[in-house]
């Protein structure tokens, strides 16, 4: 599985065609003109990313995103083929609120689908999670097979790596500064409050 992902990743490095702007594809929630933007670069198979999303994001959404103080951005940064495919399925969801609802489910069920090395089994788990959520099975399958979407995600990952020097996930930025604090809501809140 890792070898396949590395081959795909290396091939993507040599793509010549510009892909769609990341502005059109990233998952965002909240006021576009908010004073604070929280950017989270995540791999959907990363347990630390799941922990951030399950423990910190709900409070962040309630206190800051829903009150128009913060704009939140999820940036896919897949570290393996399973995470790449999960990101593809996530992008098959078109409505903003539903994207984040599905992201929540992906993280909550991470221990069920992100296991083992058989990518076919992982894909079947992802399809089941998607169809249980109400997604169209054919649309999921189309997104899983779509090389343009795959290239787009990997290209965004390469650009993020260059721009933000990401060495682990989740990597979090508050406006243009990397968040180095503890991953608990109280510490995160203090960092946000300083910027408001």
Give your account of this protein's structure.
The chain has 196 residues and is of the alpha+beta class. It has a single domain, classed as Glutaredoxin (3-Layer(aba) Sandwich), CATH 3.40.30.10. It is 59% helix and 12% strand. The chain contains 10 helices and 5 strands, in the order H-H-E-E-H-E-H-H-H-H-H-H-E-E-H. It has a 5-stranded mixed beta sheet, with helices on both faces. Helix 4 runs parallel beside helix 7 (119-133), helix 4 (81-91) crosses helix 8 (137-145) and helix 7 (119-133) runs antiparallel to helix 8 (137-145). It is globular and about 45 Å long. It starts with a helix and ends with a helix.
Comma- or semicolon-separated keywords:
196 residues; alpha+beta; Glutaredoxin; 10 helices
Summarize it.
The protein has 196 residues and is α+β, with helices and mostly antiparallel strands. 59% of the residues lie in helices and 12% in strands.
> In CATH, what is the class?
Alpha Beta
- How many helices? The count is 10
* Structural class based on helices, strands and sheet pairing: alpha+beta
The best one-word shape is globular
How many extended strands? 5
Biggest β-sheet: count, sense, barrel?
5 strands, mixed
What CATH architecture would you give? 3-Layer(aba) Sandwich
Q: Kindly estimate the percentage of residues that lie in beta strands according to DSSP.
A: 5-15%
The average pLDDT is 88
What is the radius of gyration? Answer: 16 Å
Number of domains: 1
Query: How much helical structure, as a percent, in the residues?
Result: 55-70%
Q: What is the CA–CA distance across the termini?
A: 44 Å
Low-confidence stretches: 3-24
Order of strands in the sheet with most strands:
1-3-2-4-5
Order of helices and strands: HHEEHEHHHHHHEEH
- By CATH, the superfamily comes out as Glutaredoxin
CATH topological fold name: Glutaredoxin
